[in-house]
Amino acid sequence: MKPQGSLAQHDFPILVQGVYERAWTGVLSLTAAGITKKVVVQGGRLVFASSSSRDERLGELMLRRGRITLRQLANASQALVPGKRLGTALVEQGAITPKDLVRSVVEHTQEIIYGAFQWTEGQYRHDEAGDTGESIKLNLSTPDVIMEGIRRIDSWTRIERAVGSLATRYERAGDHEEKLRGASLAAEKLALVTDLAAPRTLEEICDTSTLPDFEVCRTVWALHVMGAVQRLDAAVEMGEGDDDGLGLVMNGE
Fold this sequence. Notes:
The protein has helices at residues 12-21, 58-64, 70-78, 86-92, 98-116, 142-151, 156-163, 176-179, 187-194, 202-208, 213-226, and strands at 4-6, 26-32, 35-42, 45-51, 123-128, 169-172, 200-201, 229-231. With 253 residues, it is of the alpha+beta class. It folds into two domains: 4-65 and 98-140, no CATH class; 143-231, no CATH class. The strands form two sheets. Strands 1-5-2-3-4 form a five-stranded antiparallel sheet. It has a three-stranded antiparallel sheet with strand order 7-6-8. Helix 1 (12-21) runs antiparallel to helix 6 and helix 6 runs antiparallel to helix 11 (213-226). The chain is elongated, with a radius of gyration of 21 Å. The relative contact order is 0.14.
């Protein structure tokens, strides 16, 4: 994967899987519509994130969730000096406890990362770097981040483009157990992999799963990104072999 490029060609799920497979360490920067997100990666794990969007700042998150008042946010903001972060000021002023701060920073980091899964346009850049010195870091497996990030995508246009038509065939990869190491899959989602000992169409996968079809498609997309299942059909022409209007299929990579 190129050190920099377009999110339209390599979307965020693919970028996350790429740094995971390489056990890469550095900062993955995303820029779109004047907003920049920076995701800190250590050994392929996403451990911290920041955003230039005012709506994605820590103080605003705590305000939305009722953990601080507007006055407390204003007082802490006024107390900021170079080198002091808002969370530290809130703790010093007694607005939150250190435990509250840790919980909020973890949630804040997760929301920035999962928000990046929604981006379909913009630019990305990999910057080699060592430890950023952040004291509060995420402790999530990268496969779980990919599963949750894609689970939050509701755009059927993106999902259909990624998984293909009803006639698109999948089978599990020979090293699927290795690919799923570290993933916390519910039994219904794990069954999507175990049932693919032989190739099946997307329609057959949906028919035999206890999950709603929409959730099946999102999960198949995530499993494909992770390399646990393989897509056997690169493309199916519009109207070829199906009458449901889901004919045009693209790779999603």
